[in-house]
Amino acid sequence: MFGQKDVNVVQHRDKWVGGSDVPAILGISKYKTQFQLAKEKTGIEPSDFKGNEYTAYGNALEPQIREYINAINQTNFQPATKTDVERGIRSNTDGYDQENQLILEIKTHGKTPDIRSYEAQMQLYMYQFGVEYGWLALYERPDNFDVEFDADRLQIKVVHRDNQYVQHILDAIESFWIRCEYLKEKQDMTEQEFMSVGQNELTIVAQQVEKLELQLSNFKKLEEQYKAMKDKLYQLMEEYDVKKWETDRVVITRVLPGKRESFDSTRFKKEHPELAQQYIKVSPTAGSVRIKLKEAN
């Protein structure tokens, strides 16, 4: 009665994050949590879902809807796949029109379509296919599951690509795969432990940096004391005309005052600004963190 889903969509799903996984990873899915998805991807609790009447109905209507949209709009949407091996992402779009630079996402739904999840899925597809717009085809499913196409049940919604949202999705997918690796090592971890992976690492490193920063602060105070004691030692060696002083562990030598030449760059820039401008060198700087100790209460 109903159609079958393309094998490319369902094959090796454990190795990739697909568009349908995005809502769970973002925590907006009504059907699955990120933790449940991770257990499926890692094989700890493999999914035994083989489809149901709703997915079968969608498989049957999808080609009809695509054909109708192409005929009415003179588009050429065809199913297409893009993969990103490095990020572990695979996007199977219901339609890609290369000439018009559009993607098509087809959803057969009940009375209340999950627009938020659909659009999140489409953002990933638009990113992978490098397009700025997508068409969301919403087809309201009849109660009797009639597979004869009815144009009155179809609505098209234009979705714009949101690069900020795309980056949020990519970051969430990256964190998801990292958590999956931890889950493989500790398969009995709780959902709370799973979701804290990454955040815990940040906390640990921040605490280590805090400890080192406090040590550096104390070292700076020690350095100031050390400099003051060296100045006093020099004055005493000068006063008693001592050129060298030895202990069991160090040799202290008094260095006489002298002169050191240096280039006065400040004066040069002031007196020869145009010439100085020719020698300005711009170098890239790496990203960093700025740390400031809080004053004690």
From TrEMBL:
Which residue ranges does the record assign to the YqaJ viral recombinase domain? 11-112
Q: Which keywords describe this protein according to UniProt?
A: Coiled coil, Plasmid
Q: Which residues form a coiled coil?
A: 205-239
Keyword Coiled coil on entry: yes
InterPro entries, per database record: PDDEXK-like_dom_sf (IPR011604), Restrct_endonuc-II-like (IPR011335), YqaJ_viral_recombinase (IPR019080)
> Is Coiled coil there in the keyword field?
yes
Q: What is the recorded name of this protein?
A: YqaJ-like viral recombinase domain protein
